Every structure is written in structure tokens, then in C-alpha cells.
Automatic annotation (TrEMBL):
SMART domains: TPR. Residues 1-23 form the signal peptide. InterPro entries: TPR-like_helical_dom_sf, TPR_rpt. The chain crosses the membrane at residues 489-505. Gene3D superfamilies: Tetratricopeptide repeat domain. It comes from Vibrio aerogenes CECT 7868. The keyword Nucleotide-binding does not apply. It comes from the Bacteria. This is Tetratricopeptide repeat protein. Keywords: Membrane, Signal, Transmembrane, Transmembrane helix.
Length: 759
């Protein structure tokens, strides 16, 4: 494979690897850890990523193929282009968190160059989205940000890809658009975009992303005073983070819940959530979030009148390294300390803190902080009976807080101006500012009342929903009880069924075992021990029950009129086969060889039998063959030829005498007298015929057959004798029984029969 092919393959694998992990993290554990630290301690995140970039060498795919990179080298010494782009993105975010916009944009440019160089399309889009967000956070130019986002959406539409990577990017676009709309007070648009972003959860499937979504959505509602909706989203995030054991997300949620309860003036609850958040951030010494939490705790203590505890919190914030690097934080905490000392009537110390921040306020444009500082100075002037200075500073505070929409400080400034003018003796102005204070306070109270009314309506809906849920809960309990009963019944049925199943299995095993024993006994009782053909015992059982008893019963039913139609009785042909080699093979070839021959001959005959034929081992050298004879005109010669063919086809390792002697007779023997002859008498007739064929065979030295056939009108009385052989001999002499043979000399055969029957 060429270097160019390896390069293309490696870049593709790098891109897929980065984005397969980015749904829940980054392609490197180090980058994943740094990303989590961005909101907690951006300086620590910056240190981790800087070490990652400096201690690892960027792999150039033209130098190495994936197969030449060892596992140890991959894990500890190199970084892929995709991981490098991710690292630069994290550095840009860290610099933005620290307020260094120029350095952040420099890292963004490096990331874009690297992504374009290695054709990392999806990472390039990610970097451009990050660039749009950081620029917007810096200059708040929503129009430009939206135009840039629209260009990225056009680019995504042209790609015509609906993979998980594209869905993830579209989710990030929607969240950025929602944040821009929220900061621009476009509440309906923001809420619509947040809800639309929720549709992408199924494709992202990352618990961390879902928790962050609820946090951002709750922050939007909190920023716009929709406290109940904010509470719903933040509680969802709280329990999800608790279930996922995500300490960072849980701490962030606790901070927002504390802010929510602080704004709703539920100070004890706010303090509880702040304490839980502080327990997490206390592990990070340089965390700016910890500073904000401690300052918020000081604000709560201040509102509660616990000024000493407030001082402790503010002083902790003042001594923290983060405060020393943040001018706004440094000024804000000193203003809070001055306000606290004012409440403790320590005016000189309050003045010292305010004078210390005067140079910083003049050098920097912090109108909100300048308004608060001016108000505190005005309060000190008012207390010191300097109404002119108090009015001057109060007017400055009123103007600045009106610009910054700091309603709480603005209300305090109006009240101070009213008091200061009254102290000066200008009652008209005092009344004017008192009236403005009253109007703004009334307006604020109306908003609070409206908020309380909305809360009441939502509380009403919540109570109704709670009642509905209580009803559902009761129904659930009933269903659970019913389910428990059904489960117990099911378990009982299952156990009983299992027991029955075991009994059935045992019964089946016993029946199978008994059947095997019965089959073994049948084989032992009804099978010839050497040839494995059915023996004489089987012949006696089957022939007696099948040919005589049942046939007599059915025929008598027809004769007595119990059956409408004459039964279709089977027509059978019997052949007694005398096989001389079965008699002589033990003498000629020995016992062992004789056993083998007899067994092989028995198996051979079984294979030759058709489905409507049976064969029995009658005596050592005699076999009884029975087959259906529905067509009575079948010639006995055909039967003889078939049996002779079988004997001739039998393969043997030793020479055999292939001569056979066959005696043949039909059943019923008298065609119209079904009950005239029983099975023993029929066998006697066959033995007579076989004996005659044997005599012919001995005389002629060849195979012969003899067939005894009664004429159609032979009366049953002809065989009404205790000696069937004599009766048959007499019937032959009377012409009632015809003798057919392969010898073709009926007279000689009759003589043979007469001789055989002579006592």
C-alpha cells in the first residue's frame, strides 16, 4: 500500500476515532480531563493541554504507517492531528475564560490551519463554531454570529449526511443559537431552539450531554425570572448528575439552584446548595467558581444580617489568588466589605476600602461597580451630615445603576437622594425622589405580585398534577398488589408445571426404557437367534390372531347379517421354502462361519422384502414366505423365480448349494370357504407340497416347486377331518385340489404325495 493510501486511511480513522469518543469526551483521557476543568479551573486546564502539546510529537502520516506505530508510542509519545486540533480548541476556551481574547483567537487560527492541513472536515466545523461562540461572548454581536452560523448550516446541508457526527454538530449549533437568543432577551425563540435541540438526544446518547442540556435550559429560565421552569430543569439535572455520579455537573447545578433560591429570597435553601457546591470546588485551589460561591455566601449572610460571617466570606474571597488576577472581582469584594462595615457602623474602615478602589474604578470601565461604590460613598456622606456630597454621589449612582439596569441599587439610590435632600432642606426634591422611589418600589412589588400570581397558578397546576399522581400512585399500588398475587400464582403454576414436566420426563424415560426392554424381549422371543428373522413363535402368534380369529369373527358377522357388505378378505399366498445350504453349512464350514452365513442371509432377505410381504424362519432349513395375492391369477413360477433370484444373488465367501425347494398354497385354501382350514392345517398342506418338491429336487438334482390349489367350488366339507393331510390327499384324488409343479407331471407328483401320506 502506498504512503498516500496509508495517509488517507489514517486520517479517516483519526477523524472517526475523535468523533466516536467526543459524544462523551475527547480522543485522549488528558484532553477529556482538561475539558472538564475548563469551567472549574481554566489555568489547570491550560497547563494540562500545554503539557500534552509539548511532551508529545505530532505524528506525520507521511513518515509512518499505522502498522509501524507501537502501542507504547501511541499512548505516551505522540498525538494525532485530530487530538492536536481538540487540544488547541481547549486552550482557546481556557484563554477566553481567563479574559485573554487575543490569545484565544490565536489558538483558534492554529486549530483551523491544522484541521485544513489534515483534511479533518468535522473538526474544522467544530473549530469554526467555537470561534463564532468566543467572538460573540467577547463582542455580543449577535447579527454577525448568526450570519456565520448560517454559513456553517449551508455547508452541512451540502454534505447531505445524516450520520451521528452531523447530528452532534447540529445539536451544538442549536445550543449556540439558543444561548444567543437567550442573552438577547428573545425568550420565545430561545425556548423553541432549546426544545428543538432536545430532539437530538437519541442520536447523541451521552448522559453528560443531557445533564448539560438541562443545566443550560434551566440557566435560560433563571436569567429571565421564570423560576418554576428553571427549578424543573435544574432539578432534572440535579438528579441525573447524582445518578450518573458526575461531581462536576452536580456542583454546577447546585450553584444555579442556590442562585435561584437566593433570587427568590429563600436564603436558607440557597445557603444549603452553596455549601454542597463549595464542598466540590474546595478541592481546586485556583477555581474562580469557588470565589463566586464564597462571595454569594457572603451576600446571603449579609441579607440575613449575619455581618461577621459575611466578613469572613468576603475576606476569604479577597485573599484568594483568583481575586488578585481579576480587577472586577477585586473591586466587587471590596465594595461588599465596605457595605458590611457600614452595617457595623465602622465608617472609617468602609472609607478605606472605597478609597483603595478609586484608582481602579477610574482606570477601568465598570459602570455597575462604579454605581455601587458611589452609593456607599453617598451613604457615608449622608451619615457625616454632608448632604451636598451625598446628593452629588447619589445622583451619580442613580444614573449609573439606571444604565446597568441594577434595580436594587437604583432603588436604594433614590431613597438616599430623598433623605439627602430632606437633610439639606430641599423638601420639593425630597418629595420628588420619594415619589420616584415609591413608583419604582410599587412597580417592583407588582412584578413580585404577578410573579406570585403566576406561581400560584403553577402551584395550582402542580397540586392538581400531584393529586392526579397520588391517584395514579394508589392505582399503581393496587396493580402492584395484583401483580404480586399473579406473580405468586404464576410461580406456583410454574413450580407445579415443572414438577409435572419432571414427572412426564420420568414417565417418558420409564416408557422408553420399558419399550426398549419390550423390544429386546420381542427380539429375543420372536426372532431367530441366528438369522434374526421372525421365528416360529412370532408365526404362531401373528398367524393365529390375524388369519383365523379376526377373520372368522368378521365373516360370521357378515353371514349373520350384522354387516351390510361382504368383507374384503385378504388373499394371501404362502410359500414354504426349503434351503439345503442352511441345513448343511455348519457341517461343511464350521460353527463360526455358519453363524456368519446364516446372519448375513437373514439380513439379505430382509432387504429384499417388499412392504406387503413377510418371511419367517420356520425350521433350521425351512423359511415361510407370505405375501398379498389380490390378483389370484399370479403364476407361482414368478414367485419361485423371484426367490431363486434372491438365493442366487446372495454373496458368500464360501461355495453354497443354491438349490431351493418350495411348496406353495393360497389362503383361503378353499376359495369360498374362509373358515374351513385353520393356520395349523394350512401349514400341514404347505409341508406336504414342500416335501413333494424336495423329493423332486433330490431326484432331479435341481430346484423345484409344488403348488396346491383348490378349485373354486371346493366344498368346505372336503376338509372336515381331524387329519388334514389325508383330507387333502383325498381331495387331490377327487380332483378338488389341483397340483401344479415345475416338474410338469401331475400324475408323478400325485404319486409322490400319496407315498408321503402313506403311514
Amino acid at each position: 500500500m502506498t504512503n498516500r493510501s496509508w495517509k488517507t486511511l489514517f486520517l479517516l480513522l483519526s477523524t472517526l476515532l475523535c468523533y466516536s469518543t467526543s459524544a462523551s469526551g475527547y480522543s485522549s483521557p488528558t484532553l477529556n480531563e482538561a475539558s472538564l476543568l475548563l469551567d472549574i479551573d481554566p489555568r489547570e486546564a491550560q497547563s494540562l493541554v500545554t503539557a500534552f502539546l509539548t511532551q508529545r510529537r505530532l505524528i506525520d502520516t507521511t513518515e509512518k504507517t499505522p502498522s509501524t506505530i507501537t502501542r507504547d508510542e501511541t499512548e505516551h509519545k505522540i498525538r494525532t492531528p485530530g487530538a492536536s486540533v481538540e487540544a488547541l480548541g481547549i486552550l482557546a476556551q481556557a484563554q477566553s475564560h481567563l479574559g485573554h481574547q487575543t490569545q484565544a483567537m490565536d489558538y483558534i487560527r492554529q486549530a483551523k490551519v491544522l484541521a485544513n492541513k489534515y483534511q479533518l472536515i468535522y473538526l474544522d466545523i467544530d473549530v469554526r463554531l467555537l470561534e463564532i461562540k468566543l467572538n460573540w461572548l467577547f463582542d455580543r454581536n449577535k447579527s454577525r454570529a448568526r450570519q456565520q452560523i448560517a454559513r456553517i448550516e449551508t455547508r452541512l446541508d451540502q454534505m447531505k449526511n445524516t450520520s451521528q457526527l452531523i447530528q452532534r454538530i447540529r445539536y451544538k449549533i442549536l445550543m449556540l443559537q439558543a444561548e444567543i437568543a437567550s442573552r438577547s432577551d428573545e425568550n420565545q425563540l430561545a425556548e423553541k431552539l432549546y426544545k428543538h435541540a432536545k430532539d437530538y438526544f437519541s442520536s447523541i446518547q451521552a448522559v453528560t450531554t443531557q445533564i448539560k442540556y438541562h443545566i443550560e435550559f434551566g440557566k435560560h429560565f433563571l436569567s429571565h425570572g421564570q423560576y418554576n421552569k428553571a427549578l424543573s430543569e435544574l432539578l432534572t439535572a440535579y438528579w441525573s448528575a447524582l445518578e450518573a455520579d458526575d461531581g462536576a455537573q452536580l456542583a454546577a447545578t447546585n450553584s444555579l439552584l442556590a442562585r435561584l433560591f437566593f433570587e427568590r429570597r429563600v436564603l436558607d435553601k440557597a445557603l444549603l446548595y452553596l455549601s454542597q457546591a463549595a464542598d466540590f470546588y474546595d478541592n481546586y485551589e485556583r477555581s474562580p467558581v469557588w470565589v463566586n460561591i464564597m462571595q454569594r455566601m457572603g451576600d446571603i449572610y449579609f441579607r440575613q444580617g449575619k455581618y461577621n460571617l459575611a466578613l469572613v466570606s468576603y475576606l476569604n474571597v479577597l485573599d484568594h489568588p483568583v481575586t488578585q488576577h481579576s480587577k472586577a472581582q477585586f473591586i466587587s469584594v471590596r465594595i461588599n466589605l465596605a457595605a458590611t462595615y457600614l452595617q457595623l457602623y465602622n465608617y472609617p474602615l468602609a472609607e478605606d476600602y472605597l478609597e483603595a478602589i478609586d484608582p481602579l474604578l477610574k482606570q477601568n470601565d465598570f459602570p455597575g461597580l462604579q454605581g455601587k461604590a458611589a452609593l456607599l460613598k453617598a451613604v457615608i456622606a449622608y451619615v457625616q451630615k454632608q448632604p451636598s456630597l451625598a446628593i452629588q454621589l447619589g445622583l451619580k449612582s442613580e444614573q449609573l445603576t439606571e444604565i446597568t439596569h441594577d434595580h436594587h441599587t437604583n432603588l436604594q439610590a433614590l431613597k438616599l437622594l430623598s433623605n439627602a435632600y430632606e437633610q439639606q432642606g430641599n423638601y420639593k426634591k425630597a418629595l420628588y425622589y420619594a415619589h420616584r422611589h415609591y413608583q419604582q418600589n410599587e412597580s417592583r412589588q407588582q412584578k413580585l405580585n404577578q410573579l406570585s400570581e403566576d406561581d400560584f397558578k403553577q402551584q395550582k397546576a402542580f397540586v392538581e398534577q400531584t393529586l392526579h399522581l397520588e391517584g395514579l400512585d394508589r392505582e399503581l399500588k393496587r396493580q402492584k398488589n395484583r401483580y404480586s398475587s399473579l406473580k405468586n400464582i404464576s410461580y406456583s403454576i410454574a413450580i407445579i408445571s415443572f414438577v409435572f414436566f419432571l414427572v412426564i420426563l420420568r414417565r417418558g424415560y420409564i416408557i422408553r426404557h420399558q419399550n426398549e426392554e419390550i423390544e429386546e424381549l420381542n427380539n429375543h422371543l420372536f426372532t431367530h437367534s441366528r438369522s434374526q428373522l421372525n421365528n416360529l413363535r412370532m408365526l404362531n402368534v401373528n398367524l393365529s390372531s390375524t388369519l383365523m380369529q379376526k377373520r372368522n369373527q368378521v365373516y360370521e358377522q357378515w353371514y349373520m347379517g350384522e354387516l351390510i357388505h361382504k368383507p374384503l378378505n385378504d388373499k394371501l399366498r404362502f410359500a414354504m421354502i426349503d434351503v439345503p445350504f442352511l441345513r448343511n453349512m455348519y457341517l461343511q464350514h464350521g460353527y463360526s462361519e455358519g453363524l456368519k452365513l446364516e446372519l448375513a442371509f437373514g439380513k439379505f432377505l430382509k432387504e429384499k422384502l417388499s412392504s406387503n410381504a413377510r418371511i419367517f424362519h420356520f425350521t433350521d432349513a425351512n423359511l415361510l414366505y407370505i405375501e398379498n395375492n389380490q390378483e389370484q391369477d399370479t403364476q407361482p413360477q414368478a414367485l419361485f423365480d423371484r426367490i431363486q433370484t434372491w438365493v442366487n444373488e446372495f454373496q458368500s465367501s464360501v461355495p453354497l448349494n443354491r438349490i431351493i425347494r418350495i411348496g406353495i398354497a393360497d389362503y383361503p385354501f378353499p376359495p369360498k370357504a374362509h373358515t374351513a382350514i385353520n393356520e395349523k392345517e394350512l401349514l400341514d398342506i404347505l409341508l406336504m407340497a414342500t416335501s413333494a418338491s424336495r423329493d423332486l429336487s433330490i431326484k432331479e438334482k435341481s430346484s423345484h416347486w409344488v403348488y396346491l390349489k383348490a378349485i373354486d367350488n371346493t366344498p368346505a366339507a372336503s376338509f372336515a377331518s381331524d387329519n388334514i393331510r389325508e383330507a387333502c390327499q383325498q381331495a387331490i384324488s377327487q380332483g378338488l385340489v389341483k397340483v401344479h409343479s415345475s416338474y410338469n407331471n401331475e400324475e408323478s407328483i400325485q404319486n409322490l404325495l400319496n407315498v408321503n401320506e402313506t403311514p
